[in-house]
TrEMBL record:
GO CC aspect terms: plasma membrane
Domain of life, per lineage: Bacteria
Molecular functions per Gene Ontology: nucleotidyltransferase activity
Identification of the protein by name: Phosphatidate cytidylyltransferase
Bilayer-spanning residue ranges: 7-29, 49-82, 94-113, 119-140, 147-172, 184-204, 225-243, 249-272
Sorted UniProt keywords: Membrane, Nucleotidyltransferase, Transferase, Transmembrane, Transmembrane helix
Upper lineage: Bacteria, Pseudomonadati, Pseudomonadota, Alphaproteobacteria, Hyphomicrobiales
One Pfam family linked to the record: CTP_transf_1
Length: 316
């Protein structure tokens, strides 16, 4: 077993050990409740733990399948997230061809470019070519009612659900001296830190939260939860430096950056949900709402993380 595989298996063992401990705690908390009584916080915690098991298993299987497995997993995530996003937009019949192009042309081409390692066109395909293509396709139908709003919604959906999300598997394309064959650990670092930050902000907020940050956007987010969660996730990121090409200090800085981006990404996506008048993006994952509800922090963090690593540590 080479060093990369050894580190990956160590990480996997640690994650599943944490999940087992979390499941045990959730079970014991549920058992301590009086018969017939329920507790919303405990039920929410147990639902989240079940969802984490599913996500951990899926990501683990993708890692075992290698590069093709990771691309297929995130390609599916982009498709499902795009579907959730589009269901909340005000598209019309005139936009159907543009939507078909988004799902069956733009999305697969974006991931094919990743497979071919064509970074140059990958980085501009959606924000340049797809953004110009969408309004052209729609305008040919001749329907100008709310045209700008309709097109902007489709473009934003592509940016979030496909462009940003595809930067997670894009980490596999980077060439980092002395880190060859270990790029999958960068994906693990990104996902673990961002997801842990969300969880820790929730826990710190429940324990000590008093001051609301943005009550009109996300009533559960507090200053105390934010500070405690980001600080804890930053320390965990520094402790996980051994799975990255970074020093402990650099890993801590990277963790801080991606947790901050994840937090603000969550606020942005919450604002969109409030604008649409919904609580969750969907009901795909019990206890977590839709897929976008789980990806919102990751998709905002991924492009920033990718480009910092690319231009600071990699040689292309």
């Amino acid at each position: 077993m080479n060093a990369a595989n050894a580190d990956l298996w160590t990480l996997v063992l640690g994650i599943f050990t944490l999940l087992i401990v979390s499941s045990t705690i959730g079970y014991l908390l549920q058992r301590r409740l009086p018969a017939g009584q329920s507790n919303a916080a405990i039920e929410n915690l147990n639902a989240r733990i079940k969802a984490w098991w599913i996500m951990a298993i899926l990501i683990g299987l993708a890692f075992l399948a290698g590069r093709i497995g990771v691309l297929l997993l995130f390609g599916f995530c982009s498709f499902a997230a795009l579907r959730e996003f589009i269901t909340l937009t005000d598209t019309k019949r005139a936009d159907h061809w543009a939507l078909a192009a988004a799902f069956f042309v733009v999305l697969p081409l974006q991931y094919w470019l990743l497979w071919e390692r064509q970074y140059g066109i990958f980085s501009i395909f959606i924000p340049v070519y797809a953004f110009l293509l969408m309004p052209i396709i729609s305008v040919l139908r001749g329907d100008t009612e709310r045209f700008l709003i309709r097109i902007a919604e489709v473009q934003w959906a592509l940016m979030i659900c496909v462009f940003c999300a595809s930067h997670v598997p894009a980490l596999l394309t980077l060439t980092i001296p002395g880190y060859e064959g270990r790029n999958v650990l960068l994906i693990a670092f990104l996902v673990i830190i961002v997801q842990l930050s969300d969880v820790l902000q929730y826990v710190w907020g429940k324990l000590f939260g008093r001051t609301k940050i943005a009550p009109s956007l996300s009533p559960s987010k507090t200053v105390e939860g934010f500070v405690g969660g980001v600080f804890s996730a930053t320390l965990i990121g520094a402790a996980l430096w051994w799975i990255t090409p970074f020093t402990p200090l650099q890993a801590g800085v990277m963790a801080f950056v991606i947790t901050m981006m994840g937090f603000f990404g969550g606020l942005v996506m919450s604002a969109i949900k409030r604008d649409r008048g919904v609580k969750d993006w969907g009901h795909l994952i019990e206890g977590h709402g839709g897929l976008i509800d789980r990806l919102d922090s990751v998709v905002f963090s991924a492009p920033i993380f990718f480009h910092i690593v690319r231009y600071w540590w990699s040689i292309t």
